[in-house]
């Protein structure tokens, strides 16, 4: 264009000279006017051609830049698709930590992918403004006429075309000149530089559509991969919860704080709900897989509910056990106290002829016997309760201990009770012996006194017979005392 500017100065100079000559009425006035007009026409034509070339350069630049950018976009999207498929491919054996890292990376990659949408939209928009260049090449012969647009004025005897006229390209068999039909219907060979083949460029449109489709495919692949990642992560969390529930037992449940039992079931249901949501579009889990997991979750819930009932039952059994074992041990302590008192009395010898002590001991033992009777009643009551507990909680681990201690107390009770009964009977026997002995001694003393009051020696037969009768009566009384003992 700088050269044209320089030439324009020369043209202006020549025109000024021509005008000066015409002003001076030069003898070759007509020739000068003719040359001046021809030069002006040719110069205007050259300027129009230059403008046409500039427009063609702009359009061609846009054309090649578009297809270059389009190729770059297609390559980028293809590589991105391969990378997404390779990087985010996963299955159930994938580590949960790796999957969580990949989910984070995929979210960052999605941001980049969404930002690239503006590039794709720009290419789609540009594709609608790209002119057609291939029909300008004679090698691409036209199968049918196509519309062209004039980008400058063109006047010839056989045809006149104005800038922006919509014409029809009838033949492109020559590179420099085309057979064109003007809006008025005139047909002529016109320099091809005067025309541009306007959009739409089908190839550009198709390329842009292919880019947009490729972009949507990558976005869909990313979405599918992201769903698969999330579904496998949710599956890992769910299976962990399932294994936790399966590993639970009554002992572990008892260690939980109030409210934590329900939290376990709530966590299991929450994990399953998350899995259902995350696996809706997952390609990794089929409908059968999801149904199987649902069955496993329901089985786990039922199992855990049974554990809760067992734990509650065991806690109740332990409570009953603690109550009953406490009562049994309390009876045992009371029984041992009675036994100690009984043994102390048994081991303490009774003073000979100590009738008051004998009476006192009988009284004490009768009190002890009444205490043992009450204790025996209490033992029978707790025994009935324990027997009911044994029948209702046969599998309880506390049953053997309670049964053993109860049997021991019952056995001890029988021994102590029997010992007490025997001891009371012996005390009563001793008491009776003491009473009879003392009675006999008193009788003997009575007869001794009576004998002493008699004359030392009497010859009276009747007195002797009376004395012998009295002694016989005393003898029979002593015999009665003896047999009473």
From TrEMBL:
Domain annotation SH3: ranges: 143-200
Keywords annotated in UniProt: Cytoplasm, Phosphoprotein, Repeat, SH3 domain
Highest taxon listed in the record's lineage: Eukaryota
Places the protein is found: Cytoplasm
Keyword Hydrolase applies: no
Pfam families per the UniProt record, alphabetical: SH3_10, Spectrin_2, Spectrin_3, SR_plectin_7
Biological-process GO terms, alphabetical: hemidesmosome assembly; intermediate filament cytoskeleton organization; wound healing
A single cellular component GO annotation: membrane
Primary residence: cytoplasm
PROSITE patterns: SH3
One MF annotation (Gene Ontology) recorded for this entry: structural molecule activity
Stated name of the protein: SH3 domain-containing protein
């Amino acid at each position: 264009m700088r050269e044209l500017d320089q030439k324009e100065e020369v043209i202006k100079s020549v025109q000024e000279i021509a005008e000066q000559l015409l002003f001076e009425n030069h003898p070759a006035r007509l020739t000068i006017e003719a040359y001046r007009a021809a030069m002006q026409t040719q110069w205007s034509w050259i300027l129009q051609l230059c403008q046409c070339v500039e427009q063609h350069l702009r359009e061609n630049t846009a054309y090649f830049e578009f297809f270059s950018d389009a190729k770059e976009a297609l390559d980028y999207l293809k590589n991105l698709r391969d990378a997404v498929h390779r990087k985010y491919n996963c299955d159930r054996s994938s580590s949960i930590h790796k999957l969580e890292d990949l989910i984070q990376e995929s979210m960052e990659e999605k941001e980049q992918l969404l930002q690239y949408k503006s590039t794709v939209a720009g290419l789609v928009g540009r594709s609608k403004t790209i002119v057609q260049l291939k029909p300008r090449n004679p090698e691409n012969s036209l199968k049918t006429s196509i519309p062209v647009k004039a980008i400058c004025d063109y006047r010839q005897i056989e045809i006149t075309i104005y800038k922006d006229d919509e014409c029809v390209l009838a033949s492109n068999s020559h590179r420099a000149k085309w057979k064109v039909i003007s809006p008025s219907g005139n047909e002529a060979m016109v320099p091809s530089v005067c025309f541009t083949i306007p959009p739409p460029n089908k190839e550009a449109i198709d390329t842009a559509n292919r880019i947009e489709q490729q972009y949507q495919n990558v976005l869909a692949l990313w979405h599918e991969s992201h769903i698969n990642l999330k579904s496998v992560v949710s599956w890992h969390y769910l299976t962990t919860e399932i294994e936790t529930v399966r590993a639970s037992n009554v002992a572990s449940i008892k260690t939980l704080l109030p409210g934590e039992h329900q939290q376990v079931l709530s966590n299991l249901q929450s994990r399953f709900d998350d899995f259902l949501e995350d696996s809706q579009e997952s390609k990794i889990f089929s409908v059968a897989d999801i149904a199987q997991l649902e069955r496993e979750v329901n089985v786990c819930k039922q199992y855990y509910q049974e554990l809760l009932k067992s734990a509650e039952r065991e806690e109740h059994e332990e409570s009953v056990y603690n109550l009953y074992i406490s009562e049994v041990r309390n009876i045992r302590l009371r029984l041992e106290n009675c036994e100690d008192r009984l043994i102390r009395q048994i081991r303490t010898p009774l003073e000979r002829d100590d009738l008051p002590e004998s009476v006192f001991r009988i009284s004490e033992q009768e009190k002890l016997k009444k205490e043992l009777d009450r204790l025996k009643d209490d033992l029978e009551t707790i025994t009935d309760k324990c027997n009911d507990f044994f029948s209702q909680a046969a599998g309880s681990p506390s049953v053997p201990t309670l049964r053993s201690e109860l049997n021991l107390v019952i056995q001890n009770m029988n021994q102590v009770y029997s010992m007490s009964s025997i001891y009371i009977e012996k005390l009563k026997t001793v008491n009776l012996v003491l009473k009879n002995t003392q009675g006999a001694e008193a009788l003997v003393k009575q007869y001794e006194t009576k004998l002493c009051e008699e004359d030392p020696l009497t010859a009276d037969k009747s007195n002797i017979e009376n004395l012998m009768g009295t002694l016989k009566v005393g003898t029979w009384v002593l015999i009665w005392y003896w047999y009473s003992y």
